[in-house]
Every structure is written in C-alpha cells, then in structure tokens.
Amino acid sequence: MNDSDLLLKNGSIIAIIGGGPGGSFFAHFASRYAKDAGLNVSIKIFDRKSFCQRGPRGCNMCAGVISENLFNNLEKENIHITDLCVQRKIEGYCFQTQDESVALHHPVPGHSSKIVTVFRGNGPLQSVHEGNISFDDYLLNHVKEQGVEIISDMVKDFRLPSRKGEPVKIICGERHSKKEFAADLVVGAFGVNTGMMEKVSNMGFGYKPPKTVRTCQCEIMLSREHIEKTFGNNVFVFALGKRELKFASITPKADYVTVNLVGRKDLTRNNLIDFLDHPTVRNLMPAKWRIPNNFCMCISKIPVTYAKHPFADRIVVLGDASISRTYKSGIESAFNMAKMSAHTAFKNGVSAKSFMNGYFKPAKKLLARDNFYGILMLKINDYISSNRRLANRQVQLVKCDNDKKTASQINEILWNMLTGNVPYKEIFFKAMSLRLISKTLPLNPLCWKRKKRNV
C-alpha cells in the first residue's frame, strides 16, 4: 500500500482527542468537507471534561478574548457566538504604565471593533448567573448539531498500526470499562496542559512537544457598576517595570475581571499577588479592596515554540500542542490549523506525506516564520516596558497632539501587537522606521545609563 491509498472514504471513523476549540473547529470543517465530497464519515470527539461546569472543572485556562479576525471568520462559517456567551464587547485597549495611561483605538478611523470576551468554562466557581455561558460548550453543541458524536471519556492511549494502511487503535474509558476501537484518522487537539503530549512523543514517529512556560491567571469578582466605570469596554495592558513579566492584562467581563500574566519563566501564585498588590493595579480596584483569600485562579502552560513532526500516517496534532502564534491568538491559531489540516485530510489524504505538505509546511510558513518577528517585537517591548522612563515616553507620544503622525504610528503598532490583527512581520517593519525609533528610543549613552537606575 502507498500513500495514495491512505484516503478517507465512506464509513471512515475520525477520532478527535480534545473537546476544546481546536477539536470543535476540526470537527466543523471535517463535517463540511465530508459533505462536499459526498462521504458518510463518523466523527467522534473525546473529552472527559464538562465545560458546562463552573470553576476549574469546566475551565480551559484562557483569558477568553475572541479576536476580531476570529470573530469575523466564525461569522463566515455561520458560527454565531450567542449573546449568552458574550461577557463584554471590547472597544479598545488601555496601555497603563506606573505613571501614565493612554487609550488605544483601532487604526482605521470610524472602525467598530468586533472583539468580545467569553468564559471558556461556565464561569468562575462563585458565579451566580443562570444558564450555560461556556464558549467551549457552545462550540461542542454547534458541531453536535452537525452530527458529531461527543463522548465523555478520556482517551488513555492510541497505538500506531503494525502495517502501513491499517487503522489506529484507540483505547478509552476507565479500567473496568475500557473500550478499544479502530480509527482511520486520529486528531490530537489535546493542548499543552495534559499528559497526552508525552504519550504521543513516546510513540516513535518523531513528534516532539513544544516548549512551554507556566502562566498565571485569575477571575476577580467586582460589581458591574465598578467594572463599567473603571474599565468600561477596554482591556487594560500594563507596563509596570516588572522584569519577570512579559505581559500583564486585566480583561473586563460582566461582573468579573480576568487577570492574565505571562512571564519570561514559569510564574507562581506569588507573582499574581505581587501584581495585584502593585499601587497602579490597586488604584483600579474599589476603595478598601483586599485580595480575596479564595478566588478562581490557575497556573497553566502556553507554548513558546512549535512542535516537531506533529503528524504520521492517520495521525495529525493541531492547536497549542502543534503550532500556534507566539503569546497571542491561541484560539484563532487553532481555527486556522484545524481548517488547514481538515482540508488536507479530505483533499489529499491522511498519510504523513499529505499532512507534511498540506498542513505542516504551510503552517510553518504562516505562523512559525512570523513568530521570529514576534520574538523580536516582544524583546523590544520587554526593553521599553521594563524601563519606566521609556514606557512613559511611549504613552506621552501617543497622547501628543503636536505630532499626530507619530501618535498614530505608535497607536497602530501597539493595537496590532495587542490584538494580533496583522502578522508580526508587518508590525516589525513598521516599528523599524528610523523616524519612529528616533522619537521613541534614547540615542545617547547617558540615556542608556539611566535605564538601570529607572527600572
């Protein structure tokens, strides 16, 4: 048997490991491509987690910001996020230093942003809302209506076929109710916060997981009145001179705000407490506010590199456990990779060669190469945000009415960095304008010496 024989056909079974957005998006596109090809296939999503539960049991550990690009793509696919899921419609971002703050707006004048915030699970543990507000559960129900079977079982293991062309063996269920069945395609949409990555890396077909870093986030309950008055429809992003942090934000929702911290190295609860105790952050909280003894928080992993060889005959890995945009737009990356890999499976086949040429090589071109420029931009941002004087200077330039060209340029760069609206490469070359550099960075030795004293 050769690669051309590894095709999906009538009666083929697709097993998707993971019920998060990556798994649901793949199921959505697989259902569509199967229908277009006139194929009757069975699509099964396996995930033991119930996203309709509140607190950690239902949470998928994410800030829950749906980017404008993703929102528009979902609309094109007739996936309309219900009003019940939407916690807040985001109109802008606020860039906050220790001394200054500035509102960032969409670079296109008059453009209405389509960014929304959601909960991945059914809200924090202390939530008192009615109904199911989980974005992930909404996606599962969407594909369920397309005929996809949702199985509340954990996949314990899967085994490569002993001979080329044979199906993959899936083992799921608990010890006394173990089930085994054959799948013509196994889709790994399990993310980086499970033990499945290590199992797959030990299967011998060359998969190596991405490197990860532990982030920290929490949900803080505040009154709707305070959130509306203080945060409004703006995500707050902070440059507080904390060298251990690469990114810090507070995202408003209905009666909660989500605090999201990403560090150069693994973060802990102490980093979160230290951030919440910062005077700039405390000024955004109600008078006499105290850090709660108990609140919904998680320490979760995010990828900082991409996986090696996330495919084999009848196996493809996507989402965070494969390749995604560095520090940004994880759900959007899952959407794009799910579409690309599903298209490959139905148009080109499910061989390793098909996935390499139709999925992984284009994915690397789309994301991995662009991530190189993203890393450069993040290093520039690290330098500026860790320097109190430079961070304040950046804010002052955006607010300056006497130099609207520079203000517009910096606003555009910051907006696109925060929203992920355009590729990092495009942002990088706009940021490398000599005119802009001369305005924003110190160009004499005395200023560079001051950096250490001001951090």
TrEMBL record:
Organism of provenance: Candidatus Scalindua japonica
Name used for this protein in its record: Geranylgeranyl reductase
Q: What is the lineage of its organism?
A: Bacteria, Pseudomonadati, Planctomycetota, Candidatus Brocadiia, Candidatus Brocadiales
> InterPro entries of this UniProt entry?
FAD/NAD-bd_sf, Geranylgeranyl_reductase
Q: Which SUPFAM superfamilies match?
A: FAD/NAD(P)-binding domain (SSF51905)
